[in-house]
Amino acid sequence: MRSMAGTPTSRPRAGREPERDQLRLLGKVARMYYERGIRQPQIAAELSLSQPRVSRLLRQATEVGIVRTVVTMPPGTHTDLEDRIQERYGMRDVVVVDTEGAGEDVLLALGSATAEYLDVTLTGGHVIGVSSWSETLIAAVDMMRPKNITVAEQVVQIVGGLGDPAVQMQATRLTGRLADLTGASPVFLSAPGLVGSTTIRKALMSDPSVREVAALWSQIDVALVGIGSLEPSPLLRRSGNALAEGEQEELRSLGAVGDVCFRYFDADGRPVASNLDQRLVGITPTELMRIPRRVGVAGGSRKFSAIRAALAGGWINVLITDLEMARRLADD
Fold first, then answer.
1. Cβ(128)–Cβ(178) under 8 Å?
2. What DSSP element (H or E) covers 306?
3. Per-residue H/E/C for 312-330
4. How much is the average pLDDT of 144-163?
C-alpha cells in the first residue's frame, strides 16, 4: 500500500474549505513526507512547525484529497481471484498460489502455501483434525517451521490409515510431525481407513482406543483435509485402501465426483449414500461440517469437478489452490 500526494480531489470531511495558502502548505508537507521520504520531525524543523501540527496537516491533506491511498499488490498475488471465489461460494478464506500446471511443482507450491497459512493462522489453543490421505498435507508439514510457542493442544487423526506399512508410516508421521511443530499432543487413529464389512467397522468403532479418538472429533476447531477425485491419488493407490474398480463404478453411477475424508459427494456437493460409508472408519459428514474452520488443500486440473463440488456443498470453507484452478472456479 502506498500514499500519493497530488491535487485536491474532494472537500474536507468537516469545516471550511482551506484557503489557498493553507492548501499550498498542505501540499508542501504532503510532498515532503510521501514523495521525498522526509520524516515528520525534520519537516517540522525545516518549516518551523511543531511536530503535532505536521501530523495534523498530513491528516488534513488526506481529508481534502491531496493525499490518496493506492493499494499496489506485489507480483504473484491474486486477491481479486480470491475475493471472487470467496464471495461466489461463501468461503471463509481463499488462498491462490501463483503456480500452474500439474505434478510435483504444484504439489510443492501448495504445500509451501499451506505451511505459510498455518504459520499465520494457528494462534493458540487449537485442536487440529488431520486427514491422512493427502500428499499435499505431507508436503505442507515438511515445509513448516517449528513454532516457538505452543499454538495447538492436540492434533487428531480423523481417518484411519492402515494399509501398506510404508504409507501408514507416512500417515503417522504427518500427525506426529504436525503435533511436534505446533507443540501439540498427537492423537493417532490406529485403525484401517476402509474395512471389508459393516460388522468389522462397528467392532472397530466400539473398540475403546478408537472410541476415545472419535470422541475428540467434536472438539476440533481446525480441520486440514485434501479433496479427492474418483481417480485415486498415487498415495491412496500405494496405501492398499484404494477403491476397487467395481466400487468406483458404483460411485460414478450414483453421481459422485469427489470426496473429503472418503465421504463422497455429487457435482452439487450433496453426500452420495453408498455401502462405502458403512465400511469407513473416520469422521462423519455431520461431524466434519460442525468444525468451524475446514481447510481444503487441492489443485491440478483433474480435480476441478471435485473441488468445485466441495465448495458448493460446504465441505470446506477455506481453500488453498493453484492459479489455474482458481481461474476456472472464478469463471465457471
1. yes
2. helix 304-312
3. HCCCCCEEEEEHHHHHHHH
4. 88
Terminal Cα-to-Cα distance of the chain (whole angstroms): 31
Which amino acid does the sequence have at 107? L
Task: Return d(Cα 265, Cα 216) in angstroms, integer.
Answer: 25
pLDDT at residue 77, as a whole number: 73
Question: b/e for 10-29, b at 16 or more Cβ within 10 A?
Answer: eeeeeeeebeeeebebbbbb
For 211-234, what is the mean pLDDT?
90
Query: Is residue 223 a contact partner of residue 176, using CB atoms and an 8 Å limit?
Result: no
Q: Is 7 exposed, middle or buried (0-12, 13-18, 19+ CB in 10 A)?
A: exposed
Residue 265, SS3 per DSSP = strand
Residue 164 has pLDDT above 50, yes or no: yes
Q: What's the confidence (pLDDT) of residue 85?
A: 96
The secondary structure of residue 256, as a DSSP letter, is: E
The one-character DSSP state at 278 is: G
In this structure, the strands spanning 93-97 and 126-130 are: unpaired
The reported pLDDT for the residue numbered 11 is 43
Question: For residue 75, what is its C-alpha cell?
Answer: 507480483
The residues, any chain, with a CB within 8 Å of residue 49's CB and separated by 6 or more, are: 43, 57
Written as nine digits, the cell of 235 is 498415495
Q: How far is CA 291 from CA 112, 153, 217, 297, 312, in A?
A: 24, 16, 9, 16, 17
CA distance 54 to 43: 7
Q: Is the dihedral of CA 82, 318, 192, 134 positive or negative?
A: positive
